[in-house]
Design goal:
This protein is of the alpha/beta class. The protein contains eight helices and seven strands; from the N terminus they run E-H-E-H-E-H-E-H-E-H-E-H-H-H-E. About 50% of the residues lie in helices and about 15% in strands. It is globular and about 55 Å long. The protein starts with 8 loop residues before the first strand and ends in a 9-residue tail after the last strand.
């Protein structure tokens, strides 16, 4: 199936590892020109070299912290200068700290707002004018199953990611006239460093064996395993492609059946 991504400029944030890297690779395989960013230069460069070697695609790596407005502007400006604009955008960022209400500080709330919500606003604001001038585009925000089913001890993530869904739902209508689609993907338990970290922290907090925490998590997933980042990346790539031109304003989970709700 031709996804219509050949030659399209795709900007993928937080893409040195995990689902961001898997998406950058998936888009490169489809012939897109991929602009990648991450906070740490070494892992970012290594990811870009590996993707370029495997796919022979054009890949651009730019060090940026998406919680900082200046870094976002620099990344989008550099991509536009290199390739003339942006056609596709994956909004992605690392998760904010764990914690409950009493333990979280004012500073942590502010930092989570910048990292999870404001990064999405700024990235979309920076890329939308280019998409409009190029006849349209597609945006996906990478959120979490927590937007449908809040996760214990993740108050910051549960709150800020829900706000991102409000942004997606609103902009899907607002940008439709400019042929810009906006969707969200909500992964469940995906085998990433973040999931390992969360389970180790839970193990320490509850004074239980790590293996028991993992086994308990697996029992919650009807398909009996954690997801692979590539499986999330495939969905994102499809939503960013020309094959999904009638899809906007959606929040789609990829979770092996973890979510139990009706809606």
């Amino acid at each position: 199936m031709d996804l219509g991504l050949q030659g399209k400029v795709a900007l993928v944030t937080a893409s040195s590892q995990g689902m961001g890297r898997a998406t950058a690779l998936s888009l490169a395989r489809e012939g897109a020109k991929v602009a990648m960013c991450a906070r740490n230069q070494g892992p970012l460069d290594a990811a870009a070299v590996a993707i370029r070697k495997e796919t022979k695609a054009e890949v651009f790596a730019f060090r940026a912290d998406v919680s900082k407005a200046a870094d976002i502007k620099g990344f989008v400006d550099a991509t536009t200068a290199k390739w003339g604009g942006v056609d596709r955008l994956l909004v992605n960022a690392g998760g904010p700290p764990t914690g409950r209400l009493e333990a979280l500080t004012e500073e942590q709330w502010s930092q989570a707002f910048e990292l999870t919500f404001q990064s999405a606003v700024r990235l979309i604001r920076a890329c939308a004018p280019s998409m409009k001038s190029r006849g349209g585009g597609s945006i996906v925000t990478l959120t979490s199953i927590s937007v449908k089913q809040p996760i214990e001890n993740l108050l910051l993530s549960n709150t800020m990611r829900a706000a991102v869904v409000g942004l997606v739902k609103t902009l899907a209508r607002e940008l439709a006239a400019d042929k810009i689609r906006v969707n969200a993907v909500a992964p469940g338990w995906i085998a990433t460093d973040r999931l390992i970290e969360l389970m180790r922290m839970r193990s320490e907090r509850e004074k239980r064996k790590y293996d028991d925490i993992v086994a308990e998590g697996l029992r919650e997933v009807p398909l009996g395993r954690f997801g692979d980042p590539r499986e999330v990346a495939d969905l994102i790539t499809y939503l960013l492609s020309e094959r999904a031109v009638y899809m906007t304003g959606n929040v789609i989970q990829v979770d092996g059946g973890l979510y139990r709700g009706i809606h």
